[in-house]
């Protein structure tokens, strides 16, 4: 029936989050890591295609080039409309890729207006009067203010977006959204007539996202977190645009060994690492030691662990520790050292027989998944909202992997993820 929705995600945890939420509808969702080498004509296409990129913290021109290449692939696949997925905490660097990428995609698609809606009520992200909240805290007062690569120091989405785009930025607030899809559409049309092409849309609950999806479903491009895309498949199903049901892939039979690799320093990941330490053999990576001596010590530690035990390697650290490291190495170098080390350890673990991987952190997940040479993932059961198990091939081996966004999951996530997988296989 063709590709109804083509999605591009700016990081890998974001892509599994989006694919997992879209797959809740029961339609077939295909998740590809990076722009595929294979032409779309030669691929088995699904009604919903998701391409994962690692471009959240790249320089703007590289992020734009990569997302446009992904768009080009999706256009050749015949996608009828598109979705640009970024973080529910609107993570962007000072230079900011969210707006420039949206503008480039709009130009390519001839779209005169798009919406921005990172709300994800199930995970506590809501938008009111254009301000993003994490739980009860404004974004800039939440732990996201201390993110190692994308510290968020403003909660107002219009103020964050305005310097990132050339077009005018506006808002449709919750009072309008609460009046339903027709009222929202009318307000978007009014803003379009005033020349406003970038519209932040408030949403505090799933019902708001339903209204937004109904009102904006015919836009050539929508942008946001995963949750605003979640109602779209049901709309397509209702209208007969997609009929193909997903054949949920059975979890692979994989060996018992498991590894958690954590490069996220979010408050939730810090709690999750602390909760898992008593249950696994553990190695803490120190970025300063990595800069001085490389990853060899960690590799030797890993090689000495029996393949069939649970282990964790983490660089996860408190904000003051991260700040100390960054003062010495710079944020980008510290991040790159940790990512490269965790990527190498993932490959070592796989080569040593480990087949179950739990990765914490978006950038971290991108680095690990790329190093493992994973090009596509089957989306399995969600462990927590936005965090599914996935099944994929790496170096000719079948592995199970879950990519956990820094902020997602509850404290017991790592043990819970492994227990769920064990119960499935
Ligand atoms: N101890 C540390 N010091 C400095 N940077 C770190 C440290 N530990 C991890 N990092 C880096 O912080 C970044 C965390 O980003 P990411 O993996 O996307 O996590 P999240 O999902 O929480 O955003 C990564 O680039 C990682 O390499
Ligand atoms: O929307 C979200 O919050 C996630 O899907 C996401 O993008 C995760 O990014 P990280 O927090 O960097 O893992």
TrEMBL record:
Domain Four-carbon acid sugar kinase nucleotide binding: 260-414
Keywords: ATP-binding, Carbohydrate metabolism, Kinase, Nucleotide-binding, Transferase
InterPro entries for this protein: 4-carb_acid_sugar_kinase_N, 4-carb_acid_sugar_kinase_N_sf, NBD_C, NBD_C_sf, OtnK
Protein's UniProt keywords contain Transferase: yes
EC number from the UniProt entry: 2.7.1.217
Catalytic function, reaction form: 3-dehydro-D-erythronate + ATP = 3-dehydro-4-O-phospho-D-erythronate + ADP + H(+); 3-dehydro-L-erythronate + ATP = 3-dehydro-4-O-phospho-L-erythronate + ADP + H(+)
One MF annotation (Gene Ontology) recorded for this entry: ATP binding
The keyword Kinase belongs to this UniProt entry's keyword annotation: yes
Family, similarity comment: Belongs to the four-carbon acid sugar kinase family.
Official protein name in the record: 3-oxo-tetronate kinase
């Amino acid at each position: 029936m063709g590709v109804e929705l083509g999605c591009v995600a700016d990081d890998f945890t974001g892509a599994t989050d989006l694919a997992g939420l879209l797959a809740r509808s029961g339609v077939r969702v295909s998740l590809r890591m990076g722009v595929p080498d294979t032409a779309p004509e030669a691929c088995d296409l699904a009604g919903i295609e998701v391409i994962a990129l690692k471009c959240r913290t790249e320089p703007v021109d590289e992020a734009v080039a990569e997302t446009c290449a992904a768009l080009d692939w999706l256009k050749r696949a015949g996608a009828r409309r598109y979705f640009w997925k970024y973080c529910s905490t609107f993570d962007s660097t000072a230079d900011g890729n969210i707006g420039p990428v949206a503008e480039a995609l709009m130009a390519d698609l001839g779209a005169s207006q798009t919406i921005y809606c990172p709300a994800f009520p199930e995970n506590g992200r809501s938008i009111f009067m254009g301000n993003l909240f994490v739980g009860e805290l404004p974004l800039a007062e939440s732990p996201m203010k201390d993110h190692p690569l994308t510290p968020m120091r403003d909660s107002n989405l219009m103020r964050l977006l305005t310097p990132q785009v050339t077009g005018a930025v506006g808002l449709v607030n919750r009072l309008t959204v609460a009046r339903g899809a027709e009222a929202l559409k009318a307000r978007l049309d009014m803003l379009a007539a005033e020349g406003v092409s970038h519209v932040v849309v408030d949403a505090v609950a799933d019902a708001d996202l339903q209204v937004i999806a109904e009102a904006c479903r015919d836009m050539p491009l929508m942008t946001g977190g995963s949750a605003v895309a979640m109602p779209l498949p049901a709309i397509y199903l209702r209208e007969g645009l997609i009929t193909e049901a997903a054949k949920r892939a059975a979890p692979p039979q994989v060996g018992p060994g498991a590894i958690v690799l954590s490069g996220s320093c979010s408050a939730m990941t810090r709690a999750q690492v602390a909760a898992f330490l008593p249950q696994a053999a553990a190695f803490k990576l120190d970025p300063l030691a990595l800069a001085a001596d490389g990853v060899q010590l960690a590799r030797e530690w890993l090689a000495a662990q029996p393949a069939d035990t649970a282990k964790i390697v983490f660089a996860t650290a408190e904000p003051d520790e991260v700040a100390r490291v960054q003062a010495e190495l710079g944020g980008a170098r510290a991040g790159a050292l940790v990512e490269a080390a965790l990527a190498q350890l993932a490959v070592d673990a796989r080569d040593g027989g480990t087949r179950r991987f739990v990765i914490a952190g978006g950038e971290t997940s991108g680095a690990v998944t790329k190093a493992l040479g994973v090009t596509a993932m089957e989306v399995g059961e969600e462990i927590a909202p936005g965090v599914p198990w996935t099944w994929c091939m790496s170096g000719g081996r079948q592995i199970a992997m879950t990519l956990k966004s820094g902020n997602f999951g509850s404290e017991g996530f790592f043990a819970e993820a492994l227990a769920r997988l064990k119960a499935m296989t």
